[in-house]
């Protein structure tokens, strides 16, 4: 009985990947505050993060108190209403930023629309 148990245990160990093989070690990162945190004029995109300021990712959040969507673009100017590479998020939603070296642009349809977030590098 013990021999069967040890054989099963050995087979299980062979079939289960090592934990070390699946872990990712992340080094120190710098938190970069947003360049601006408000869309001052509705329909006009603002640069939330400049080049390289989210090389390791980050996030942008449309506040829960907002009444309209916030549109975010990591590949060019954001377009109100969302099209192309612009993604719009509802109030209260957090948009994760992909690690890349480009800029992040944000727009909404209303003026004085605040948002929050940061970039990592």
Q: Could you characterize what this model shows?
A:
- The chain has one domain (28-120): Jelly Rolls, CATH 2.60.120.
- The longest helix has 14 residues, at 2-15.
- 26% of the residues are buried.
- The chain has helices at residues 2-15, 19-22; strands at residues 31-33, 38-39, 46-49, 58-61, 70-73, 86-89, 94-97, 104-108, 113-114, 116-120.
- It is α+β, with helices and mostly antiparallel strands and 121 residues long.
- Strands 1-10-4-7 form a four-stranded antiparallel β-sheet, with no helix packed on it. A four-stranded antiparallel β-sheet has the order 3-8-5-6, with no helix packed on it. Strands 2-9 form a two-stranded antiparallel ribbon.
- The N and C termini lie far apart (55 Å).
